[in-house]
Structure formats: structure tokens, C-alpha cells
């Protein structure tokens, strides 16, 4: 095994409090009761000058404009959208959801011990099972945390999760030494098991990063009452967090410009 510096990360930075802090900050600016959790949308239809958004529990929400921020393939497969342009639905079905069939592991320790040895916690591996590892410890370093993306195919990791965890533990000892054996907890989250994230089309093919899609994905539909703002619609870093932020901002700006 050899150790060598990784190339620069192009100004990469972490958000204090994680990406959830952005969602929480926006939510605080909304009226109480605005956000509804665990409310799956099953249909969107036009009615006079409004849209009617039908939920799984039978409730119906009325709105002038709707923005869908859900994986494009899932939107086509699980939401009945009235009079959706066939060209658009075709593009949506062809657009892979980046990371949809991936899994993530978080490994907790009492302290971020690797920092004491001058290590960043960043690993890139061709052996795995974690092909990429990052320092995930909180700002105050009250505990140590590493997270990594699992390189095993979905079928293999789901058939033998115990072996996967054991191999992750062995990999960390190889990379960070004996201290890495003092694991407090291993948390695995498999996006391929999430029916509202990963479609059968995502599972059927090898992972592929989406290219910048046509502007049709960034235009308004149903007389500019329906818009899409998931990361894969972005013309900047599609599929990534930056793309998600750009997609949301783009949709909001285009909607406001038409009022």
C-alpha cells in the first residue's frame, strides 16, 4: 500500500451543521404548518386556473404553481401528471439519478484520532469496499466520524451486509492504523432501497453521472404552472449538491420573472 497526497479539491468546503442547516434555515422563514412531511404526491392535474396536487392519503392541495424536486425518473413512474409533454417525460426517463444506486457508510469513534497524526481523513481507494472516505466529524470534534461511499454493487451489499461491515472495519485499520479498530458504531444507508429515490431503470444499468440536460427540463410546463428543480435539471454540476442549489434558484427566478 502506498500513501500519496491527493490532488486539490477545488475549494471544497463543509457547511457548518451540514446541508440540513440550509433546509432548517429556510423552514424558519415559513409560516408554521407550511411544511408537510411524509406526504407522497401521486398526481398533479390542472383545474381552472390552479393546480391540484393529490397526496397518497387522499388529501388535495391547491396551488398556483408547483415545483417538483424529486428524481426525474421517480416523478414519471410514480406521479400521474396530467397532459405532460411526451418529449419531456421521455427526457426524464432517460436522465439517471446520480447516486441513486449507491450506499453510504458512517463510522463513529470517540475522537477524530486521525487528526492527531496529521491526517485529513480523506481516502480514495480502488480496493474498497469504501471507494471514497471523508472526515465527517462535527465542528467541535466532540466525537470522530468518517463517511464513505460503498463500491460494492447493490445486489452484493444487500445480500451480505455483515461481511460488508466487517470489510469496512478492516479497510479503516489498513488506512488509519490500529486506532481505527475502536469503532463505536457503523451506520449504513442504501439509497438503492429507497423507492422514492431509486427507480428500476437506475438499478438496471451501471451508475452513470448525468450530463447537462436540455433546457426543456428548466422550462415551465402546464402553462408555466409546473416546474422541475431537482439537481439533475441543473445546467451546473447536475446531480451534485451545487446543482441542486442552482436548480432551485433557477426555477424560483424564472417563476418570479413571469409574475
TrEMBL record:
Domain Amine oxidase: from-to ranges: 11-256
InterPro entries documented for this protein: Amino_oxidase, FAD/NAD-bd_sf, Flavin_MAO
Pfam families, per the entry: Amino_oxidase
Molecular function, one GO term: oxidoreductase activity
Family the UniProt entry places it in: Belongs to the flavin monoamine oxidase family.
Name this polypeptide is given: Monoamine oxidase
Amino acid at each position: 500500500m502506498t500513501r500519496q497526497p491527493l490532488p486539490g479539491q477545488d475549494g471544497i468546503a463543509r457547511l457548518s451543521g451540514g446541508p440540513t442547516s440550509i433546509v432548517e434555515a429556510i423552514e424558519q422563514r415559513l409560516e408554521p404548518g407550511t411544511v408537510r412531511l411524509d406526504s407522497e404526491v401521486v398526481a398533479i392535474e390542472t383545474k381552472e386556473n390552479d393546480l391540484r396536487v393529490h397526496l397518497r392519503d387522499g388529501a388535495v392541495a391547491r396551488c398556483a404553481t408547483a415545483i417538483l424536486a424529486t428524481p426525474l425518473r421517480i416523478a414519471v413512474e410514480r406521479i400521474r401528471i396530467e397532459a405532460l409533454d411526451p418529449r419531456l417525460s421521455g427526457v426524464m426517463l432517460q436522465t439517471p439519478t446520480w447516486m441513486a444506486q449507491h450506499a453510504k457508510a458512517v463510522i463513529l469513534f470517540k475522537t477524530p484520532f486521525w487528526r492527531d497524526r496529521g491526517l485529513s481523513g480523506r481516502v480514495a481507494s480502488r480496493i474498497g469496499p469504501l471507494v471514497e472516505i471523508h472526515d465527517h466529524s462535527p465542528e467541535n470534534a466532540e466525537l470522530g466520524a468518517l463517511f464513505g461511499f460503498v463500491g460494492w454493487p447493490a445486489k452484493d451489499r444487500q445480500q451480505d451486509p455483515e461481511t460488508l461491515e466487517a470489510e469496512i472495519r478492516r479497510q479503516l485499520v489498513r488506512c488509519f492504523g490500529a486506532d481505527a479498530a475502536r469503532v463505536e458504531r457503523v451506520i449504513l444507508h442504501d439509497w438503492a432501497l429507497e423507492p422514492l429515490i431509486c427507480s428500476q431503470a437506475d438499478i438496471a444499468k451501471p451508475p452513470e453521472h448525468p450530463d447537462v440536460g436540455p433546457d426543456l427540463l428548466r422550462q415551465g410546463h402546464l402553462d408555466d404552472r409546473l416546474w422541475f428543480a431537482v439537481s439533475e435539471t441543473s445546467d451546473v454540476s447536475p446531480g451534485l449538491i451545487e446543482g441542486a442549489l442552482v436548480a432551485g434558484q433557477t426555477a424560483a427566478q424564472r417563476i418570479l420573472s413571469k409574475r
